[in-house]
Amino acid sequence: MEDKECNSGGFMRLVSEESCSSTVTDELCVNNYQTEIFNQLPSSLARRRTHHHHQDRGTTETSHPVEKHPGLAGEARDRALTQPIRSLPVCMQRKREARDLRHLQTRTVGRWESWKRNQSINRKRLGEQVGEAMSRLLPWSSTFHTIEGLLRFEGNDSVLDFFVGSGFLERSPVFYGFYARSSLDLLCLNTPLLFLLGTLTVLILSLVMVVRRTVVGYKHTWLLGNHYHIHMSYKVFCGWDFCIHDPEAAALKLSFIRNELKLYLEEERFQQREARRTLGQWAHLYSLRGLLHFLVLVLLGGAFCLIYYATMASQAERSGDYLILRVLLHYLPPVVITLVNFFLPHVFRHIAFLEDYSITTQVNATLVRSIFLKLASLGMYLFFLFKNSQQECWENQFGKEMYKLSVFDFLACFCNTFFIAYPRKWLVDRYPSSWLARLSGKQHFLIPFNVLDLVYSQTVTWVGLFYCPMLPFIETVKLTAIFYIKKLTVLQCCVPAQRMFRASSSSVLFHFMLLLGLIMAVITLGSNLHQFEPSSSCGPFVGSATVFNVTAACVDSLPGPAQSTLRYLSSEAFVLPLILAQIVVLTSFESRRRANGKAIERLKDMLVMSTSDKHFLLKQHTLSLRRRKKTFKAPTTVSGTREGSPTTMKDPSAGIGEGSHIAQLKDPSAQPTGDDSPS
């Protein structure tokens, strides 16, 4: 047995290796050994001899409490005076010495100095307590501490792992490989079954909500869209809401009506210009549109080639490169996809302007091309990724790619706002006459492109849901941050767009694009699960031939009638009646739709007839008022003649005829039935 001597404060302590290994941990043994080595330093021995010499002489000098705590350093030494003795990270003997030293300092420095020192200590303690209380008010403080307690850091982990999705993040609940079957392994309550049911539940709920929004929006657009034309008079005389009392709300409503009138007038102007086109102009226009369509196809093909080469370069192994270079290579496909999705929609917008469509058609054509670009680029990237994925835990690799797409999307939005939008605004405001300011111009907030970015983000979330289960939560936090960043961009850096945008005409298109993204995610997930077997090294489906085999054990454990029912529901014998029932239901709904359409047409005809009846009744009312006015003017004219005039009436019949003649002079539309008799 090897003994170690520790001389501290005039007493001896024996520490053996066996006692260390049996009573304390290895880390505590190392700390004790370091403290003993520090106590044996010549400087520490000199300080202790000086301190004992001063105590023997009875001097009033006192040493600093840091000398009594050689194990403390840095911030811990600075807080030695303010920190409570019971919370000092030293042994009990050192705490007793610190207590005696503080009492000694209190007796020797005087009452006034002692009172000031106590007040300073109390203020510092109060500040620390207030800071801790404020930190507890943050809703994510305890969550972060809990997560920090569960993330296992190793020697190769770094901050860059947060951006790449490797290291400690790969071993966290963020990715597929964290969830093992051993954590919960019952017949009908196990990790694989819950994992699969959770994914299917999210996708089914998303499908129901997206389809509902699409159908409701389409019904509203079909009823109040192109089939029901609203005249300008309605917008002018019936567009104002007289319940508005707030000046800001009134100004907003006024701006909305003004924009609607501008858009209506611009559409009317386009229709008039289109009606005046000749046959030669139409031929030239169609030739130009054909060339521009070919240009769009060339741009899409070039974008797909860039994504392919970026994916190949990212998947190549480069072990000798620097860490930063490896991170950039990992982010090369997201960078290329983000740049392509940022620049090409603006090119498509200018191409649609050159094609000379109407405003609504230009917006819809740009949206269709842009969403095809975004979804097709994502689909091509997934195809190239799966084609070259040969790793053991390929689910984690796929989840990391979706995670990187989401993270870089947020980084691109942040950099675009603070490194492009703000410098651009500052340049235009500070140097408006410079050529760079005239070239860049003022920034416009384009609503369709920002909505397409949301569709793209949601599609990435659906695609990576199975492989990165925490991606919906990450996407929620990201979209919340992006909302405030976009709000700051709109209010501080952007000006209103020169061309109006009618959101009601494109809302159905947005929801339909979102539905296409969901269908693409479901097809991608289904094809991957059907084509590739689950990894044998990670995940909850280790040892299963397919993902859907996890339900077999649960079904076998159920009673006989339940097993028969479930097997019948999953067999072909149930599918055929289900399809027939769907056909009957769809036929009934189609018949009802046609009947409702005919009823709507009849109601429209009735509205037209009621409008015609109103015009007829108004005309008849006007004519009756004119006739009544003629009747009252005749006696007034007769009574207004002078007495003794040669034209004074002797015969009543003559007066009536003369009055009718005067009425005819004032109203030529009134025609008498005879020469002398009134009509």
List strands and helices in order, with pairings.
Elements: E1 3-8, E2 11-16, H1 17-23, H2 26-39, H3 42-57, H4 75-78, H5 92-109, H6 111-137, H7 141-150, H8 161-164, H9 191-224, H10 232-237, H11 247-275, H12 279-315, H13 323-330, H14 332-354, H15 359-387, H16 394-430, H17 435-440, E3 443-444, H18 447-463, H19 471-493, E4 494-495, H20 503-531, H21 550-556, H22 560-569, H23 572-639, H24 652-666
Parallel strand pairs: 3-4
Antiparallel strand pairs: 1-2
Helix pairs in contact: 5-6, 9-20, 12-14, 12-15, 14-15, 14-16, 15-18, 15-20, 16-18, 16-19, 18-19, 18-20, 23-24
Biased composition (Basic residues): 46-55
Keywords: Membrane, Transmembrane, Transmembrane helix
Biased composition (Polar residues): 634-650, 670-679
Give a quick set of tags describing it.
679 residues, mainly alpha, two-stranded antiparallel ribbon, two-stranded parallel ribbon, extended, disordered C terminus
Write up this protein.
Belongs to the TMC family. It is a multi-pass membrane protein. The protein is mainly alpha-helical and 679 residues long. It is 70% helix and 2% strand. The chain contains 24 helices and four strands. It has helices spanning 17-23, 26-39, 42-57, 75-78, 92-109, 111-137, 141-150, 161-164, 191-224, 232-237, 247-275, 279-315, 323-330, 332-354, 359-387, 394-430, 435-440, 447-463, 471-493, 503-531, 550-556, 560-569, 572-639, 652-666, and strands at 3-8, 11-16, 443-444, 494-495. Helix 15 runs parallel beside helix 20 (503-531). The longest helix is centred in the last third of the chain and has 68 residues, at 572-639. It is extended, with a radius of gyration of 42 Å. The N and C termini lie far apart (143 Å).
